[in-house]
Specification:
The complex is a heterodimer of chains A (590) and B (195).
Chain A: E1 2-6, H1 7-17, E2 22-25, H2 33-38, E3 46-49, H3 53-65, E4 70-75, H4 76-92, E5 98-104, H5 118-123, E6 127-129, H6 134-151, E7 155-160, H7 161-164, E8 166-171, H8 189-192, H9 196-219, E9 224-226, E10 232-237, H10 238-247, E11 253-256, E12 258-260, H11 264-271, E13 276-280, H12 286-293, H13 312-322, H14 351-359, E14 363-365, H15 390-400, E15 408-413, H16 414-430, E16 436-441, H17 470-477, E17 481-485, H18 490-501, E18 507-512, E19 525-529, E20 548-553, E21 561-565, H19 575-579, E22 585-589
Parallel strand pairs in A: 2-3, 2-4, 4-5, 5-7, 6-7, 10-11, 10-13, 14-15, 15-16, 16-18, 17-18
Antiparallel strand pairs in A: 1-8, 6-12, 9-11, 19-22, 20-21
Helix pairs in contact in A: 1-6, 3-4, 10-13, 14-18, 15-16, 16-17
Chain B: H1 3-6, E1 9-16, H2 21-34, E2 38-43, E3 53-61, E4 74-79, H3 82-87, E5 92-101, H4 108-111, H5 121-126, E6 131-134, H6 136-143, H7 149-158, H8 166-176, H9 179-193
Parallel strand pairs in B: 1-4, 4-5, 5-6
Antiparallel strand pairs in B: 1-3, 2-3
The chains are: A alpha/beta (590), B alpha/beta (195).
């Protein structure tokens, strides 16, 4: 059976065929589709959206210790959250096969930083697989389960955006699922409880395991030399291998698929007859450093290849450098094309709160999600943004630092609040820090494509469950002021936000409105501008709504343009009606 | 460069989030696979969905390595919108086929007055010898659903890809398009192919 699959889909198939029984993940681009596709094997793989990557990893650890094959998936920064369980689990060791899928995002297409998680696999002494296409993703996941179980080692399958979201043909074979019999569960505290007395023994066991795995890596079919002509040879893994094959099709290449432990001796033999060994890797010099440490000379290119995604164009510059030629000219884009950045959708429930916060001149710490777009002009309503859940901690720190601005608001989405905002809120209550936490609650994880979360009322498998109330959590924590407001009532929000920001107490405001992409507003009313009343003041344009456009000149030849509303985009949210000082915009039935 | 790399066909598809570029990339990749080719389809999700500029790339041939097309190596650039056509025009090979939907979606940066509008788009497009304009929106209405403009463009693209048989296109459409929208999409494809 041959299918066109993204690596994320192929990983789900690999888990299915390998007999994975339990899977958990937290959504994050470019990893999200791994669990979404595993959920299609409902009934055979028990899977869930966990509240965060740490919990997801702990669930997978529990399942592995219980003796079954288990997979956990996350984006690159998710592993920062999950490092704590991983770094001790690597000492305890897997029982049932344990596979962690981590998707890095070089060039930060949809991420807040660029980090190369291959470093963390070495740090954690985990097996590391780097598929270079979807077929390998399918094959490597199955091998990762087998080796993890055999050597009791956590296995990481690391993809990048260009692997995770590229579709290539995959031969699935008969795609028959084989579930190995569970490793019998034995209560064995000296193995599974990492108190210091036991952990010291585990520490030695971990290093011995890594030594044994070196031989596995040297012999792995995923690590192989491909013959070629010329005296310059290449070492590459993941998508970088594909770029090398594209740009240096004639050259000898050592393809690394199982990259921790590194197959050092096999590469030493490959490099021996070569004049120059070039290691092409995206982001950090992980393999180059390991080879140099083993005494294998590695060429250091002058062409910059360390930051952002690689591509054939950048490698063409390396080819020219190796040939002693000038880099080929790269066609430049036209400089005057108007920008089209991503925007909050027309009618988005996040727009109103940012408009109000800007009006109140609040200092706003932001968080991770669609609403991070509140930073963009014309809303320009965000001062700082860091990582999942950080809005609340940063707001507490700014308050304690006695920022001149008395109005400090942390703005966070519902899924991010459940992920790691709750602990920050508890800290504010405990330490009596008067910050205002504004939760933009659209009852879904919107940015990554509408995955359910504890507030949604359903699970990854589509089962109905009670929806968790954020206001109830805040009250249970002892937050002195808890409010719920309507994101389409600007005056109401302004009153509540101002009261909270000036109250000197810890406050939480839940702004409740569904994601308009997820739950289309049923109304047939949309906003219209009365051209005779509009004075072309531009107040409505400052909402940054993609449905509001510059219309005709106010008077013929005038530089001021009246506003117009695109009926195809407008959903009748009425925010523009409310901000118009002249009453020129009203809702009308289509 | 070896033959198998020279024999790869490179298609870049650009547009605005929500125009259906991803469906068209899927259909192209499935059709190329049905026609017996190796294929790679690469796209970027996430932030780009929110009304931003979007790009995906499909490469097919005897054997495809890189998922990304070298800059200036696109054989056919399919633009679902005029501003996006000019934004990515530098990716096109000199003399390459430039299939452009005759549609302007004004970016908010312009409609809000923050940036000047695109200057002389028609004249700039006309400078490309491989330009072919498609009235995809009008043909989609004719097919029976304005939302099939993307599949009209796929039909128009099929004219430039004789290596993919009619059967392969049909197989892809039947496999990927939900049954209740199949007929209208087949009509849109045919109208595009005869445009």
């Amino acid at each position: 059976m041959k299918k066109l699959l993204s690596a994320n889909e192929a990983i789900a198939w690999g888990a299915y065929v390998a007999g994975c029984s339990v899977a958990a993940a937290y959504p994050g681009t470019p990893s999200t589709e791994v669990l979404e596709n595993i959920a299609k094997f409902k009934g055979e793989i028990n899977c869930e959206w966990a509240v965060n990557e740490k919990v997801a990893t702990e669930i997978a650890v529990g399942a592995s210790l219980a003796g079954v094959r288990t997979l956990v998936a996350m984006k690159h920064v998710g592993l920062n959250v999950a490092m704590d369980p991983l770094m001790t689990f690597t000492h305890i060791g897997a029982r049932g096969g344990f596979v962690m899928v981590v998707a890095d995002d070089p060039s930060m297409h949809s991420s807040q930083n660029e980090q190369d998680n291959r470093v963390l696999a070495r740090f954690g002494r985990c097996l590391l697989f780097e598929p270079s296409d979807s077929q390998e993703a399918f094959d490597m996941v199955r091998e990762a389960f087998a080796l993890s179980e055999k050597y009791e080692v956590p296995a990481i399958v690391r993809t990048t955006t260009r692997i995770a979201h590229t579709s290539t043909p995959v031969e699935l074979g008969d795609a028959v699922r084989t579930v190995p019999s569970a490793v019998p569960y034995v209560k064995e505290p000296s193995r599974n409880v990492s108190i210091p007395a036991f952990a010291r023994k585990m520490r030695y066991k971990t290093e011995a395991r890594t030594e044994a795995l070196k031989a596995v890596a040297e012999a792995s079919p995923f690590n192989c030399a491909e013959a070629g002509t010329g005296r310059v040879g290449f070492v590459a893994s993941g998508v970088a291998y594909q770029y090398v094959k594209e740009v240096f099709p004639e050259a000898p290449v050592f393809k690394v698929g199982l990259s921790f432990p590194m197959p050092i001796e096999a590469i030493r033999a490959f490099a021996a007859p070569l004049e120059k060994l070039c290691v092409v890797e995206e982001s950090d010099p992980v393999m180059a450093d390991a080879l140099r440490a083993a005494g294998i000379p590695v060429y250091e290119p002058k062409t910059e290849l360390r930051m952002m995604e690689l591509n054939p164009t950048r490698l063409a510059a390396l080819r020219a450098e190796l040939a002693g030629e000038a880099a080929p000219a790269v066609p430049a884009p036209a400089a005057d094309i108007p920008a089209r950045p991503p925007l909050l959708c027309a009618g988005c429930s996040h727009r109103g709160p940012f408009h109000v916060l800007a009006k109140l001149k609040a200092t706003v710490t932001g968080d991770i999600g669609c609403y991070t777009l509140g930073v963009a002009p014309p809303l320009s309503a965000m001062d700082a943004g860091l990582c999942m859940g950080a809005s609340i901690g940063m707001a507490i720190g700014m308050k304690k630092a006695k920022l001149p601005s008395k109005r400090i608001a942390a703005v966070i989405g519902d899924s991010t609040f459940f992920h790691s905002g709750m602990t920050g809120l508890l800290d504010a209550v405990y330490n009596q820090t008067p910050v205002t936490v504004i939760v933009l609650d659209n009852r879904i994880t919107a940015m990554t494509g509408h995955q359910p979360n504890p507030g949604s009322g359903r699970t990854a498998l589509g089962d109905a469950v009670p929806a968790v109330s954020i206001a109830a959590i805040a009250r249970a924590f002892g937050v002195p002021r808890v409010h719920e407001v309507d994101p389409y009532d600007l005056a109401g929000m302004e009153k509540v936000f101002a009261e909270c920001l000036d109250s000197g107490e810890t406050c939480l405001v839940v702004v409740r409105g569904p994601c308009v992409l997820n739950e289309k507003k049923g109304g047939k009313q949309i906003s219209f501008v009365d051209p005779a009343t509009c004075r072309a003041c531009g107040a409505c344009l400052r909402l940054g709504c993609p449905a509001i456009v510059r219309g005709e000149p106010k008077t013929p030849g005038s530089k001021a343009h009246i506003a117009a509303i695109d009926p195809a985009s407008c959903i009748g949210c009425t925010l523009c009606n409310q901000v118009c000082p002249f009453g020129a915009i009203s809702n009308q039935t289509l | 460069m070896s033959n198998d790399i020279q024999n790869v066909t490179n298609v870049t598809l650009v547009g605005v989030g929500g125009q259906g570029t991803i469906l068209v990339s899927d259909l192209l990749a499935l059709a190329a696979m049905a026609a017996g080719f190796d294929v790679k389809k690469s796209e970027i999700h996430g932030m780009s969905q929110r009304g931003g500029s979007v790009i995906s790339q499909v490469r097919f041939g005897a054997h495809v390595h890189s998922p990304i097309i070298p800059e200036g190596g696109t054989d056919i650039l399919v633009a679902f919108e005029r501003t996006e056509a000019l934004r990515y025009a530098h990716l096109l090979k000199p003399g390459g086929i430039f299939l452009v939907n005759h549609l302007e979606k004004t970016p908010v940066s312009v409609s809000s007055g923050a940036q000047p509008p695109l200057q002389d788009p028609d004249a700039r497009l006309a400078a490309y010898p491989g330009l072919r304009l498609v009235e995809a929106e009008a043909l989609a209405k004719q097919a029976g659903n304005p939302r099939t403009a993307n599949v009209v463009l796929l039909g128009a693209l099929s004219r430039d890809l004789p290596a993919i048989s009619a059967e392969a296109w049909q197989a892809a459409l039947h496999q990927r398009v939900p049954a209740k929208f199949l007929d209208v999409n087949l009509r849109a494809f045919t109208l595009g192919a005869s445009s």
